[in-house]
Amino acid sequence: MVKNIIGKIDFAEFLRGKKATFMLSLSNTQTVNIAGLTQAGIPGKIHLTPTLDSEFLCTGELRSLGEIATTPSGVPTPALITRAVHLLKPYSNIELLDLGLEVSPKVDYFKTHTFGISPSKSIALDAKIDALDIFQKGLAFGQTYECQDDYIILGESVPSGTTTARATCEALDYDCKEFFSSSFKNSPTTIRDETVKNALYHVRSDDDIFAKLGRVSDNMQIFNAGFILGLNNKIKVVLAGGTQMASVLLIVNSILRTMGGEFDTSNLALCTTKWIKEDDKSDIKTLIELLDFKIDAFYVDFDFSLSTHPALKLYDEGEAKEGVGAGGALMYGLLNGLSKADITKQVESFLG
Amino acid sequence: MVKNIIGKIDFAEFLRGKKATFMLSLSNTQTVNIAGLTQAGIPGKIHLTPTLDSEFLCTGELRSLGEIATTPSGVPTPALITRAVHLLKPYSNIELLDLGLEVSPKVDYFKTHTFGISPSKSIALDAKIDALDIFQKGLAFGQTYECQDDYIILGESVPSGTTTARATCEALDYDCKEFFSSSFKNSPTTIRDETVKNALYHVRSDDDIFAKLGRVSDNMQIFNAGFILGLNNKIKVVLAGGTQMASVLLIVNSILRTMGGEFDTSNLALCTTKWIKEDDKSDIKTLIELLDFKIDAFYVDFDFSLSTHPALKLYDEGEAKEGVGAGGALMYGLLNGLSKADITKQVESFLG
């Protein structure tokens, strides 16, 4: 079942049986090199996570590494969920957005949009992103993008992205530091607080919004804020993610405040997992309520209660939670007739 | 699962969830009248097989005969597989290509493309095909054809087509006589050798490529070679067949060698059944490796191991193996979420 975090169910119900393009936005930030900040990948190779996630989603194979990306405690990537839905009820189309990857995904035929964007630096030292440029690239992409399907599911794979999301929203003066989730069950609070503190230290009092974003954010968030504004409500978009996608919306909100524009959000919604919705270390609902505009937000009533696989039970205990558009993928699956049992069985089949 | 015979999986994975036109190319050759050469149909009525296959695929009925086409040993036509997939996960569109049928399929609404092509004579006596004309008809059809879907699955039903395929490739000087499959588990080697020998006897030393094809090939192979070249990579095509479709590719290859042209094959692939891939009497992989261009070739990991029906178990023993695009149909089914159990059950339902 797809359920509301905020708003009404109609947006989601309208998408029942509709065709979706799954778009995966990918970027690397050197923020991952801060020890203990994220568990989204293989230690020492976390920068490969978005690359491997894309390869696995598209082809079922990990071409840039010989083994499936797991966290130190053995939590497998949420890409398994996104791929499982695709095998059972395929997205009509998968497209990749390379928003600054260290290693390009090795896939043929699947459209990979490139924008000449480089991985960003660590926010602890100033991310040094040309945020206006990235934003304008997103805006232009949204203005020209033509979707062949009924809607877009926009997911992301950005290791340490929840930390850059928190820094972003704090830099934009939202009172929100307690609201961001983490790939860990128990957020590494001290390391994260320290990282965000270091990030905010670089923000100057005369920085405009893009100058701030350039220091403390990541390419995915900045680009997608532009992308959403560029699409200008012409196609339905499900932001498939948790607090990182909420941060994208908060960037949009800040830009609208600054520029004083009107923005129709009737074709925009967010969908995340039950693990994010029920996470007591973060608060997606309150983050969304910080927006000046109204938006429907959903979560998918899916967990691994039907599984006894120890790696999957970790999700139910609060590890990993979201990523690679897992919440939006589950929504698509359930809206197209898949059951919790179907999806669970398919995910289990990947793990052997 | 769809697996590679040659190449990478990406082409197939890209087609996951995509919409397909199933195109069935049909022709008769009097070569079938050579006793013992083929078991693709009802003895004495084998010329009706492509007609009946089309009727069954489109309507579920056999209008030109009151009973389902079976081989003497009771192996049902692979059209059952192609139809089963269509019932469970419909192709967006089915079109028929009448490339010289003795009896036109009795179906309304389904587009049947006609080209004024007559059935061909026996290759043992010189097939007397105006091969340049048939090729040019295929070329023109490819140049003007507009596909409404994401790709074409191109199947065939041509009784005794594996023998004409072998004669074709031998006449074109490929060293390949051991590589062609047969509708029989045990190829009728002597009859077939004799037939091909008789066919090649008619080839003259000064025959150009079309003169050779006109004597020893069949309409389906010549037309489809033109069709593929005419499409010129503008739409993805899955050649749904075994060694007959490999022969189509070898004709294309010979024409390119003769004409010295460049040809982009990135939108072209072949997909066949596991029964062909594992057949120890033929060798599709080696046939494809004879090509000067690269092409991905796939097989579908489907068999009737979940069935106890004696007629279906014959497939697993090596009878029939392929035809009516069964391999491509299975690929389409599996890429759209059908399971082996789903398809097996549906095929069984036709047999009662």
What does this structure look like?
2 copies of one chain form a homodimer. Chain A contains 14 helices and 8 strands. Chain A is α/β, with parallel strands linked by helices and 352 residues long. Chain A has one domain (2-351): Rossmann fold. An 8-stranded mixed beta sheet of chain A has the order 1-8-7-6-5-2-3-4. In chain A, helix 9 (243-259) links the parallel strand 6 (236-240) and strand 7. The mean pLDDT of chain A is 94. The A-B interface holds A 58-61, 86-93, 107-110 and B 8-11, 13-14, 16-18, 335-337. Chains A, B: This is Nicotinate-nucleotide--dimethylbenzimidazole phosphoribosyltransferase. Chains A, B: GO terms for molecular function: nicotinate-nucleotide-dimethylbenzimidazole phosphoribosyltransferase activity. Chains A, B: It comes from Arcobacter nitrofigilis (strain ATCC 33309 / DSM 7299 / CCUG 15893 / LMG 7604 / NCTC 12251 / CI). Chains A, B: InterPro entries: Nict_dMeBzImd_PRibTrfase, Nict_dMeBzImd_PRibTrfase_arc, Nict_dMeBzImd_PRibTrfase_sf.
Strand order of the largest sheet of chain A: 1-8-7-6-5-2-3-4
Uncertain segments of chain A? none
Oligomerization state: homodimer
Strand content of chain A: 5-15%
Order of helices and strands of chain A: EHEHHEEHEHHHHEHEHHEHHH
Q: What's the architecture of chain A in CATH terms?
A: 3-Layer(aba) Sandwich
SSE class of chain A:
alpha/beta
The coarse overall form of chain A would be globular
What is the CA–CA distance across the termini of chain A?
A: 27 Å
Set out the fold topology:
The structure is a homodimer of 352-residue chains.
Chain A: E1 2-6, H1 10-14, E2 20-26, H2 49-59, H3 79-88, E3 93-98, E4 111-114, H4 131-144, E5 151-157, H5 161-171, H6 189-201, H7 209-216, H8 219-231, E6 236-240, H9 243-259, E7 268-273, H10 274-277, H11 284-289, E8 296-300, H12 310-316, H13 326-335, H14 340-351
Parallel strand pairs in A: 2-3, 2-5, 3-4, 5-6, 6-7, 7-8
Antiparallel strand pairs in A: 1-8
Helix pairs in contact in A: 2-3, 3-13, 3-14, 4-8, 5-6, 5-9, 8-9
